[in-house]
Amino acid sequence: MKKIAIVAGGDSGEFDISLKTAANIFQTIDKELFKPYTIMVRGRAWTYTQDSIIYNIDKNDFSLRIGGEKISFDAVFIAIHGTPGENGKMQGYFDMIGIPYTGCNMFSSALTFNKFFCNVVVNSLNVPVADSWHFYKNDKINFAELSEESGFPCFVKPCNSGSSVGVTKAHSMTELKKAVKDALEFDDQFMVERFVKGREMTCGVTTINGTVQALAVTEIKSKKEYYDYEAKYTPGFLELVTPALISEKLEHTIKAYSELIFKKLGCSGVVRIDYIVDKNEIPYFLELNTIPGQTVMSIIPRQVQYLGMNIVDFYTGLLEEVMDFIN
């Protein structure tokens, strides 16, 4: 039986969501094939808890010693949203010590985690992307000029964060300045993005039998002004429609864009790609999530179930993709 480490926690505002993702993966993973261990990551503390006893991970080889037994892992299921699980840091560590892991590699993770630079690359693929302006913490900003170019409302986003943490929709100069200040609480760089009015869509993508395949298109209907952190993770604020009630042409376009982005950015595992669709049915790329949520409320499990796929088998496939599987 293969030993699988499910790494959870992390050092971002998505800590609690990561724990829920890890718990769902732990409950769902095929226990006849795998023995899962949930490893908590918080700063320098990497631990495993059993019977209320906390054991430290040996970071030299990512092993665990309980009593006289040394436990080494055959693969890692990364369930950390945000740093260090989604930005390439964890991937680089596992690459160096030679342990396979689910999801994108170090480069793809680092690139897609930065919203602005990911936008630049995606736009180069002729996928529509909303105009945006990029700044670092100590840049001098001409707010009058910026607001004239971006217009109101506009979005202010930390470049390196997930689950809409630190994201603000600004409707005025006062709100714009406050939004910039708030964004810098989460990152030392941020972007101001032109608002595109439309419907929010998202598309999961994975590899099935060696072929990159879009799962389904889901429409996100938020009762909040936009799909923010509260809407994502609080019951009652969100309606997810799978499949989205859209034209076949639009569905085909979103799936084609999503598969193209997955391939060209070197993604692996399962990712989720978000769009805003304007009144002319043009889908504008918003962001790419390399560690999409896997909670009971999350979109990817719903898309998998909609396609008639068994979620247990789906997780098995993600692990088989990265390791030499022995029945």
Summed up:
This protein is α+β, with helices and mostly antiparallel strands and 327 residues long.
Low-confidence stretches: none
- Helical coverage, percent range: 25-40%
Mean pLDDT score:
92
The name CATH uses for the topology of the largest domain is D-amino Acid Aminotransferase, Chain A, domain 1
Biggest beta sheet summary: 5 strands, mixed
Domains (count): 3
Sum up the overall morphology in one term.
globular
* Amount of beta strand: 25-35%
Class of secondary structure makeup: alpha+beta
User: What is the CATH domain class of the largest domain?
Assistant: Alpha Beta
CATH superfamily of the largest domain: ATP-grasp fold, B domain
Radius of gyration: 20 Å
Note the run of SSEs as H and E. Answer: EHEEEEEEHHHEHEEHEEEHEHEEHH
**Number of beta-strand segments:** 16
Distance between the termini: 8 Å
Q: How are the strands of the biggest sheet laid out side by side?
A: 4-3-2-1-7
What report would you give on this structure?
This protein is α+β, with helices and mostly antiparallel strands. It folds into three domains: 2-103, Rossmann fold; 110-128 and 197-290, 2-Layer Sandwich (D-amino Acid Aminotransferase, Chain A, domain 1); 132-194, Dna Ligase, domain 1, CATH 3.30.1490. The chain is built from ten helices and 16 strands. The strands form four sheets. It has a five-stranded mixed sheet, covered by helices on one side. Strands 14-13-12-15-16 form a five-stranded antiparallel sheet. The chain is globular and about 65 Å long. The termini are close together. The model has no long low-confidence stretch (mean pLDDT 92).
